[in-house]
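Review form for a predicted model. The reviewer records the input and the model, then writes brief findings.
Reviewer: anonymous (R2)
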Amino acid sequence: MPVSDDDVTETLSTYLRLRGLEPSKAAKRRKRRRTDDDENQPFTAGRDPKGIGDLISDLTRQSGWDSQLAQEDLVMQWADAAGEETARHASPVALSEGLLTVQCDSTAWAKNLQLMRSAIVTELARRFPDAGVKNIRFIGPDVPSWTWGPRAVPGRGPRDTYG
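Model under review:
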């Protein structure tokens, strides 16, 4: 038996609306249609909390810092990648366009590491793929330059090997 708003008192009408038996016309107009938004629903996929490491990884990837951070990791972990003995006598000084420049204590160390170049490049590429190391250049110790100043004479300079 349908009940109209005219026949029923306000109290009874409120009771029926609260029980869901006969919603009023005003409630239908006020009722907003909800869209199904999975992002705001509890216990749905993607709502699980993430670890701080995952958040930082996402941030560095989105910001484009992966390559630069991999290069910094390479420098910081050079001793692990190249070996303790090698790290005591050689250290990375520059990395640009895939060329890693490593400065050695002596020309003998530079030559020996040059012979081991392929093994070192392979190990660095395996450990630090985002660093982009394609080749390594080993240089000897810094030596004084004899070709500076306004009165420099062209030529080979002193014939010493400095190391």
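Findings: The radius of gyration is 37 Å.
Further findings: The first strand starts at residue 90 and ends at 96.
Recommendation: see findings above.
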